[in-house]
# Entry
Amino acid sequence: MFKIGIAAAVVLLFVPLSVYGEMSSGNYNIYADSIGFSGGNYSTSTNYSLSDTIGESGAASVSSTTYILNGGYQAMNQDDTLGFAIATTSVDLGTLSKTAVNEAGTAFYVSCNAISGYTVSIGALSGTMPPAVSDGSVTIGSDEYGLSTGGNAAATSGDVAVTNGLILASTSGAAYNATTTVTFKASYSTTQAGSYSQTITLTASANF
Amino acid sequence: MKALRFGFLTLGIACIASSPALAFSVSPTRINLVIDPGKQQLVGVTIGNSENTSEGFTLAVSGVKQDETGRPHFGSGFDRAETWVSCPADPINIASGATKKVFCYIHPEKNAEPGSHYAALLVKKTVAPGGTVSVNEQSAILLEIIVAGVVHEGLSIEHWQAPAAVQTKSIWNTTLSLKNTGTISLPITGLVEISDWRGQRISSEPLRVGNNLLPGSVRTIEPVVSMTGNRFPGPYRFDAVITFGRSQVASRATLTVWYIPPWSIAGVLGFAVVAALIIKLKKKKYRSH
# Structure
């Protein structure tokens, strides 16, 4: 009986066992894994690439007239995901001053696992603000309004006019929680006193 | 004082930025489908809400085209495909931590032109306006609709220019513009071949031309070219070779630049000075006789 138990234990050591579940930490996410006899290689030639796994159970394709069920590790083809958030959606510049540039900011975060990267741009714009900055800097005592961006993915330089289609951030590869700060700046002279407000829609998307 | 104020502002934004909770997510980010003209197809988009509260979202269809850097630019009236997509008009409420899959119909008209067409699905989070500047967020899913039929692959090199016809430096920027003249998006790769005045190739460098080029789009890049090694002065030929599409056809443009390295200018000047001295000495000798 004891010998049978030992033999069973030895056999079990060499039998592939399934490991289930998505594993994630603060920085990484393992979407799917596989333990089998062999394989797990990625082979390439000039025209083809092959990713292989060997020894999984249930790695087959089953179909009916309505559905197809693809089983196994190689079928775990995860769709690209784009996550987008804005830190604060209400940015208050206060009462504009002739002796200072009023500044207020927010930040946005993007996680995108598309290998082409992502772009965040101004998708829609409405409202009235002081005249757009055109000399690269919003300065005290002049009628100017603009924004600047900061962060590794920031796509503007200096103070720029807030215009429809303006690209604020962009990457050429996947990103995880990439942060871009946006600082709005306004100044005015006596000639441009008034009440101002603006609604901006930021559009995040993967690149083509 | 200004620096101090900027410091506080940056610190404030950094504090805001240190709590990254991704408000919502969409998946997939790009949808590519092939469809027959006049047929209908359903596409699904998953929206995830990672806020602490239930949120409302709306779906809209937008036009999208590619700018000269290869990035998406949203608007309307770019492509007929914008009218082929219909999505649920009602707001979609998603509970905290939940996901919901929504479906849109793609229905190209019977006489739709074969090839690549583009639109975008906009998923917008409903936000109440507030502050001087109210910032809303939306995510776009890029939609490539390939209408089945006979398609045409074509690419033209619009510009291939150097800043001047004569260069004294060994490294300089060039300008290269490509246009997709076909009806389907093109994967592109490129290289620069440099040949001397005898037509003998002296080097070949890969060109970073970027991602797929959409039909009708122009891509402008500024590749850096360099004369490797010690080269003699003279005319050099720079060929931009762009391989495109599934057919792997190559398009070529040629640029000729006179390369005059500084050492050759110094050599010519030195030779001129020496020659002038010799002539002067000979004249002096002749007069003394």
